[in-house]
Write a structure and sequence with these properties.
CATH topology of the largest domain: Rossmann fold
Strand content: 15-25%
Largest sheet: 6 strands, mixed
Oligomer: single chain
Order of helices and strands: HEHEEHEHEEHEHEHEHEEHHHEEEEE
Radius of gyration: 21 Å
Strand order of the largest sheet: 2-3-1-4-5-6
Keywords: Amino-acid transport, Signal, Transport
Distance between the termini: 48 Å
CATH class of the largest domain: Alpha Beta
Shape: globular
Helix content: 25-40%
Structural class: alpha/beta
Family: Belongs to the leucine-binding protein family.
InterPro entries: BCAA_transport, Leu-bd, Peripla_BP_I
Organism: Celeribacter baekdonensis B30
CATH superfamily of the largest domain: Response regulator
Protein name: Branched-chain amino acid ABC transporter periplasmic branched-chain amino acid-binding protein
Length: about 400
């Protein structure tokens, strides 16, 4: 089945230019430390386009041509490749990238060429915040959605939190949003720790956290925000934070990263997606098809990529084509569409996709080598007061 899927994708890429085409550029970090995220995102995008077009890979009789470009996780390369996609390849819409730093470099290019860029799955708030422009839409969740849903799951009167995050836009935006969201729950942040993205030894950072938390009163939690390899959760858990009355907490992650969660049964947090949580026809199709084609369940960013593909097809249908960017923007602003997570809606003010998140509790289950995020409750989009970009 995997071979058949690859042939389908190749057929899309080889579609003849003699016929009307809809050109979509996927500009993302195929290589580098986030390549697992990238592969999931691309597979999800292809599956979304397939599902939304009933397998034809056509919209209103026009063939979809999918153009792939590898940013290598480098902002300057990402910017140049997006310019190439819009300028040389005449892409109507672009999707990507994986890294928030690369995304921030790419945003001005969309405005310069007056073409839509759907950001998926880069997370930093500033993408749909201070660095936003009207050509940017985001199907992925932002740092505030991560933070506020985790604050809802973890916060409360008497809760004292320390944070550990990577020292770049993803980590700092995430902590800033989490800090603000926690204040509304009555919880407080006692200490913030930032480390380089390639850190592998967390001893010094953990010791600083323990020192700052040791004598505090209340329910003490260490909230970890991390992307990519070198996840610190297991290493810090091995240092026995419970000696200081500290519980580790974290949001959801890809299946490979959830292996570290197995060491902390009962841990709670909020997640963007886990394949067994949403109950709807699109997710049922995604799970069934992904198992058939890849012999594995869809992961965190597979669902996000699929949401982007579904949004593209819905927007082009509503706009009557892909060539008129103004018509696309008009169609997408306020647009609600169905995804593996259920309905999403592009907010008019900043084009951020509003969506549900999921409060989970980690369980150990037979046959799974990772901690399973079992649903406590769905946190609806109406329950999260997601800040709107600066006007």
């Amino acid at each position: 089945m995997l071979r058949l899927f690859a042939l389908t994708a190749t057929g899309v890429l080889m579609s003849s230019t003699a016929f009307a085409e809809i050109r979509i550029a996927h500009v993302y970090g195929k290589t580098g430390s986030l390549e697992a995220y990238a592969a999931q995102s691309h597979n999800g995008l292809m599956l979304g386009l397939e599902y939304a077009t009933n397998g034809t890979m056509e919209i209103n009789g026009e063939k979809i041509v999918l153009i792939e470009k590898d940013t290598q996780l480098k902002p300057d390369i990402g910017r140049a490749l997006l310019e190439e996609a819009y300028g040389d390849d005449d892409a109507h819409i672009a999707v990507g990238p994986v890294s928030s730093g690369v995304a921030l470099a790419m945003l001005p290019v969309a405005e310069e060429y007056e073409r839509v860029l759907i950001v998926e799955p880069a997370v930093a708030d500033s993408i749909t915040g201070e660095n936003w422009n009207p050509y940017i839409f985001r199907t992925g969740r932002n740092s505030s959605q991560d933070a506020i849903s985790n604050a809802v799951a973890l916060g409360g009167e008497g809760v004292v939190v320390a944070t550990l995050a990577q020292d770049y836009a993803f980590g700092r935006d995430g902590v800033a949003a989490f800090r603000e969201a926690l204040e509304e729950t009555g919880a407080t942040i006692a200490h913030e720790e930032y480390v380089p993205t390639d850190t592998t030894d967390f001893t010094a950072a953990a010791e600083r956290i323990f020192t700052n938390m040791a004598d505090l009163e209340g329910e003490k939690k260490l909230f970890i925000i991390w992307a990519g390899g070198g996840n610190p959760m297991g290493k810090i858990n091995a240092m026995e934070p419970e000696r200081f009355g500290i519980e580790i907490a974290s949001g959801g992650n890809i299946l490979a990263a959830l292996k570290a969660h197995k060491e902390i049964p009962g841990m709670e947090g909020a997640t963007y997606y886990y394949y067994e949580i949403p109950q709807n026809p699109i997710n049922e199709w995604l799970v069934k098809t992904h198992f058939e084609r890849f012999d594995s369940p869809p992961d965190f960013f597979t669902a996000g990529g699929m949401a982007a593909g579904l949004a593209i097809v819905e927007a082009i249908k509503r706009a009557g084509g892909a060539e008129d960017t103004d018509a696309l923007i008009e169609a997408m602003e306020g647009m609600t569409w169905e995804t593996p997570k259920g309905p999403m809606q592009f907010r008019v003010e900043d084009h951020q996709a509003m969506q549900s998140m999921y409060h989970f509790r980690t369980e150990i289950q037979d046959g799974k080598d990772y901690g399973v995020p079992v649903l406590v409750r769905e946190i609806g989009m109406d329950e999260m007061n997601i800040p709107v970009r600066n006007q």
